Amino acid sequence: MPRYGGLALKKPTEVPLDSLVRLRRSYEERVTGAASCTRDDVLLEIGRPEYEDDNWCLTTADDEVLAWAAMARNGDTLDADLTALPCRHGESAARTLLRLLLDRADELAARHGLPYGLTVGGILQGDQVTPSLLEEAGFVHGPTSRQYDVGLTAAPLPPVLPDGGVIRGAGPDDFEVLHALHRRSLNEGPRTEDPEAFRAGLRRLSESGGVTLLLAVDGHPVGYAAARAVGGEGRVLQLAVTPASRGLGVGLALVLAVLAELRDLGARRALVTLDTGDPTDHGAFGRLLSVQGSRDLIRFRRADA
User: Fold this and answer.
1) What are the phi and psi torsion angles at 38 (to 5°)?
2) Most exposed residue of 65, 191, 266, 267, measured as fewest CB within 10 angstroms of its CB?
3) Are residue 215 and residue 165 in the same domain, yes or no?
4) What are phi and psi of 185, to 5 degrees?
């Protein structure tokens, strides 16, 4: 087992789940004053096929996790997430994992003969440690997304659809359509390129009581949303809209519809993440939904990539 300054490098599946949950919740609390991560959130991330090969954490001798990094290929970009406690030992652990990400990116570029770009996300606005390390390593501030905490004690307003728009539940026959939307629509963050892995993820979501909605305009699929509720907590896991359909209210219509589904499944609140580049949906959120709080997540990109 590799060791770095007394810390052990392990796969997330090799450490207690509670240690990973404590890392995420402690990080959120120290940076924003409130934590929203649940055990189910961590289980979902551990099980993501995109992260299977490149997923590491650094732990103390008693298996407390100080930092966690994961990376996935997304076309000609490597998209990574990095979480580290904002403390002295957490900073050291973050620096070590960042070096591991950079070395792995160089290794993959040499193996595949591609000039991979590299982004690192999962960084909360207000983090005083990780952004500085990234900037030292040649990264610059990139896209920002906003995560909303939405109360669902009252039913969301019905969605306003574009002309010719129809929303319906997606089924097994829609797999190829959903995968095509997924690959075309996600600009940042990990993307599931393997069709069988994507199919397996949708199957697991369906078997766990989740819901996937597909929106078509004049019969042409333009977006989908996937979500699930566990223990009264809802999560919008994926929201994809084709580039040509952005700015038409497609994303907002999908969010309103899937939040209504989550409420029917027993969720009392839900987390929804939106790219901050679309002001239309953000402006409507506060007027149409019971937003109880929000926070920004920053993605950094390597400037020389």
Assistant:
1) -120, 170
2) 266
3) yes
4) -100, -25
